[in-house]
Amino acid sequence: MDPQSTSEIAIVLTTIGADADAAALARTLVDERLAACVNVLPPMTSVYRWQGAIEQEREQQLVIKTTRGAIASLETRLRALHPYELPEFLVVHAAGASPAYRAWVAESVTPERR
Fold first, then answer.
1. Which residues span the domain enclosing 56?
2. Orientation of helix 71-81 relative to helix 22-31, angle to 10°
3. Cβ contacts of residue 80 below 8 Å, gap of 6+?
4. Exposed e or buried b for every residue in 23-60, given b needs 16+ CB within 10 A?
């Protein structure tokens, strides 16, 4: 694996229904070392087009901090856990982060050596 991909930070955005247990999803991603941190934002109103109709739902935004190298595994796991047919999965590459924060994310996402 490219050494840079294990330390370059990526932020993944997804939404989940306001009544869903977003904290449990976040905890699973952190516990499985697919994310260093997941912020669960308060419920909001989302308006979007789905299957030809305009929908409006209450959702929570999850902001997932991970590494570039973990994105594929994170996406696979998120799709398995997520209740939506097509979950949002937007990746934003963080161009700048302090070296200490970048190291913490990399350490948190890297599987523990046993």
1. 3-109
2. 140
3. none
4. eebbeebbeebbbbebebeeeeebeeeeeeeeeeeebb
In the chain, the number of structural domains is 1
Threshold 0.85, pTM exceeds: yes
The residue ranking higher by pLDDT, 110 or 1, is: 110
- 53-76 pLDDT tens trace: 999 999 999 999 999 999 999 999
CATH number of 10's domain = 3.30.70.120
Alpha helices in 2-98 (DSSP H): 22-31, 71-81
Secondary structure (DSSP) of 50-67: ETTEEEEEEEEEEEEEEE
Does some domain include residue 48? yes
- The share of the chain scoring above pLDDT 70, in percent, equals 92
Task: Find the helix or strand (DSSP H, E) in which 91 lies.
Answer: strand 90-93
